[in-house]
Amino acid sequence: APARFGRPAPPPQTGWERLSELWQRDELQRYPEETVNIVKAAFTAGLAGWLYGGLPAFVSARRAFIERSHGELFQNRADAVQSAHRAGLRSFIRYGWRWSWRVTAFVTIFNVVSTGLSVYRDKTTISNFAAAGGFTGALFRMNLGLQGLAGGLVFGTAFGIPAGGLLLALHSLAGESMQEKRSRERRELYERKLAEWQSRLSVTEVLGQT
Fold first, then answer.
1. Which of 20, 29, 31, 184 is the most exposed place for a label (fewest CB within 10 A)?
2. Which residue, 203, 200, 178, is CA-closest to 8?
């Protein structure tokens, strides 16, 4: 019989099955909401990091250019203003990029680890975020030796606990966590597919009797 007439597969039961489902598309070619949220958070973190590092650098470079260019000659006032803006823009791009990729990498690793732990354990707890923060902080500071590794672990854990508490508070306002929502959607999808399969099966049996 064609595969579409087979009994639908039940929802994933083990942690590894749920993890592998994170990177698989559904029938509508859509990735799971957790994966989409990781991508959105990475983009937002990159933009915020660029602004955080770029805007102060722009102001500082523009001020420094004005202070050291008092003796220079410019064609007119507009030329002087444009030169100052170009100097600030170069610093905005340079320092904004330095902060952007670091913040993006930190947030992405943190979200991947915390989401992976929540999906594997099939529950969202503050310990998932604390472990994700500690791992990410240690990873970023491991090049400084054991002292840097310990410092990054402490800093990351201290960052992960309030961040996780904030996310859990948002989930409580929504009425259900991401895992509860995902489990409910899996169950509803399986029940709908099972009902459709049983309906097709009954139609096939009637045709066979006819």
1. 29
2. 200
